[in-house]
Amino acid sequence: DAKGAAEIARRSRGTPRIANRLLRRVRDYAEVKADGYITADIADRALDMLSVDQRGFDNLDRRLLLAMIEKFDGGPVGVESLAASISEERGTIEDVLEPYLIQQGFMLRTPRGRMVTRNAYLHFGLPQPGAAGTDTGVSLSLDIDEGGES
Asked: Cα dihedral sign for 113, 117, 122, 127?
C-alpha cells in the first residue's frame, strides 16, 4: 500500500537503487511473514530486521558514527584513521557513507578531519561532550527534526 511504499522510500536515502533493493527485500519478507501485501507495519518490521533504522542508516553508517564518538571523542579524525578503525576502505567512507551522513547533518568534514555533530549524539542517545558547559571551541549543533525517532 501507499504507506508501505512511503516507509521504504523514507529509508532509502533518496536513492532509487537503494529503494529497489529495499523493496525486493521487504517484498520477500512480506511473502514469507505476511500475505505478500506490503503495509507500513510490514515494511517497518522488515526494515528493522534488515537493520535499516528510521533515518535510513544501516550497520555500516552506525559503525562509522559510533567509532567517531567512542574511539575519537567525536573527532576531528582523519579518514585513514577512521577507515582503519572500522576496517573499511577509505573510498567506501568518502564515496558511500560520508555524503549521506553530511547531507543529513550527522557529520562534518573540516580542515582538521571528520567530526560528528550533535545530531549523532542525539540519534544514539549519548551525552555530547562539552554539553555541561565545557567549551570545546567547535559548535556541533546542526538541529534537525528528529521526529521523535532514533
From this structure: positive
pLDDT tens column, 3-24: 999 999 999 998 999 999 999 9
Contact (CB, 8 A) for 54 and 149: yes
Q: Is 21 exposed, middle or buried (0-12, 13-18, 19+ CB in 10 A)?
A: middle
Residue type, 55: R
d(CA 106, CA 120): 5
**Helix count (H) and strand count (E) of the chain?**
8, 2
Work out the mean pLDDT of the chain and round it to a whole number.
89
Q: What is the pLDDT of residues 28-69, one digit of tens each?
A: 999 999 888 899 999 999 999 999 999 999 999 999 999 999
Q: Name the 3-class secondary structure at 12.
A: coil
Q: Cβ contacts of residue 82 below 8 Å, gap of 6+?
A: 64, 67, 68, 72, 93, 114
Phi and psi (nearest 5°) for 129? -60, 140
DSSP for 18-62, written as a single string = HHHHHHHHHHHHHHHHSSS---HHHHHHHHHHTT--TTS--HHHH
